[in-house]
Amino acid sequence: MSDSEAPGFHVASEQEIREGKGTDVYFARTVEVLRREGVRKHVLAEVRASSLPSDRLRRLHIPAPPPPAQQSIVDSIRYLERTLNALGTEQPETQAELRALMPAVLAKAYRGEL
Asked: CA–CA separation, 88 vs 17, rounded Å?
């Protein structure tokens, strides 16, 4: 009896692998355990390949918004970056002001004035 004929085992053919019809049993079992345990965390993975199927990539259609919409997106992102940078410079100043006010607030609280 060969490995591919062993009871309870299926050995994927090269064609099945190329067509994405198989998966790693450890991956499938991990998903099963995570679902059973109620774990729903968002997970990222990094995959590396020594080469990509350039003929398939050339045929791949990736839709993109028209240039004016792209520019609008870029403008919005730049505005948000400027806003975040401004908030980042104001935050230490605000924190220093709060630290300076804390003794007075605590004193009023101690005296029951709050």
From this structure: 50
16-50: b (≥16 Cβ within 10 Å) or e: eeeeeeeeeeeeeeeeeeeeeeeeeeeeeeeeeee
Two tokens, residue 45: 């993975």
Q: Is the pTM for the entire model greater than 0.90? A: no
Q: Judge if 39 and 69 occupy the same domain.
A: no
Residue whose structure tokens are 């009023």: 108
Q: Do 112 and 78 belong to one domain?
A: yes
Q: For the chain, 114 residues long, give each residue's pLDDT as a single digit of tens.
A: 454 455 677 788 888 878 877 777 788 888 889 899 998 887 778 888 888 888 888 888 889 999 999 999 999 999 999 999 888 888 888 888 888 888 898 888 888 888
Structural domain containing residue 23: 1-43
